[in-house]
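Researcher: I'd like a candidate sequence for this fold, 219 residues long. If you have to choose between options at a position, lean toward the conservative one.
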């Protein structure tokens, strides 16, 4: 079974763990997983882990402080977003009830290109952070404007043709090898040779969110 690059392997079905024991409903089965996705909660966008999932809901883990009754959205990939309501919170975990029942096969589906030749992509996170691009011809300072586990989009990068192998480093993230996939007058897309670890990206994005809050208060 092949999943989105940002996802991990699915394990075997187990009993419902998406709700506390006292609230579990008979006849509903959960699948124990370890998937990563994008959580949008009141405009805050951060990575989250899906610990188990059923057609009606999921148990998630996130650094965002959620509230019971809060509406959220979970993005598994660009063509699969689920809306739901937080039903319980326990430390860093929460139980989410989906707005509509889902087909679990859509979660595991391979991510081939559609009939319009558009391939679903892993979730991206908006940001604005400086980075250094190192090439054989020297270094350039650019700005990361969105990032995923497997790639980045940057601006202020010039004269680096598609196919060029580079090194990219941003404050708080380790140096990574990447390849320029496309480049135009406004921006460029880079694909990482090895994806960021979940913990690396999660901590970095939370730090970027904190920096943005400080900048807003300063202004």
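Model: Candidate sequence:
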């Amino acid at each position: 079974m092949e999943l989105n690059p940002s996802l991990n392997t699915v394990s075997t079905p187990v009993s419902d763990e998406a709700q506390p024991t006292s609230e579990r409903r008979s006849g509903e089965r959960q699948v124990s997983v370890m998937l990563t996705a994008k959580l949008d909660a009141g405009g805050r966008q951060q990575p989250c882990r899906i610990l188990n999932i059923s057609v009606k809901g999921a148990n998630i883990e996130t650094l965002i402080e959620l509230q019971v009754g809060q509406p959220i959205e979970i993005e598994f990939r660009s063509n699969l977003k689920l809306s739901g309501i937080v039903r319980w919170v326990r430390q860093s975990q929460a139980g989410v009830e989906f707005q509509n029942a889902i087909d679990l096969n859509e979660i595991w589906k391979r991510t081939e290109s559609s009939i319009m030749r558009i391939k679903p992509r892993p979730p991206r996170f908006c940001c604005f952070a400086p980075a250094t691009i190192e090439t054989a011809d020297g270094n350039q300072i650019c700005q990361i404007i969105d990032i995923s586990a497997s790639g980045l989009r940057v601006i202020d990068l010039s004269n680096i043709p598609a196919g060029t192998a580079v090194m990219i480093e941003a404050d708080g993230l380790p140096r990574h090898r990447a390849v320029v996939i496309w480049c135009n007058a406004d921006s460029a897309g880079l694909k990482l040779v090895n994806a960021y670890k979940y913990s690396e990206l999660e901590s970095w994005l939370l730090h970027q969110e904190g920096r943005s809050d400080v900048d807003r208060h300063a202004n």
